[in-house]
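Homework help board

Subject: predicted structure for assignment chain

Our instructor gave us this sequence and asked us to write out the predicted structure in token form, then describe one feature. I got the tokens but I'm not sure how to describe them. Can anyone check?
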Amino acid sequence: MIETSVKIFISNINSYVDEALSIHSPLRVKRRVGNDFIVISAEDWKRDQETLYILQNTSLSKQIIESLKTHYNNSGEAKR
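My token output:
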């Protein structure tokens, strides 16, 4: 994760945003008084939200686990 101060971030906002977008890595902006914040691309945020949804959905997680079991045991539907 890239880290910088608010002052440096503001001075170089375009390059920091471009870097966060291009390497898909969040940017942590540190403040002297605490309450740091994170800059992340909308695409990465959406992906993370979808992952959290899946991890919090026990029914969906069980379906994924069962699907993986049948895949690794070759007990799923035959390939066409």
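Reply (TA_rk): Your tokens look well-formed. For the description, you could write something like this. The chain is about 60% helix and 15% strand. That's the kind of observation they're looking for.
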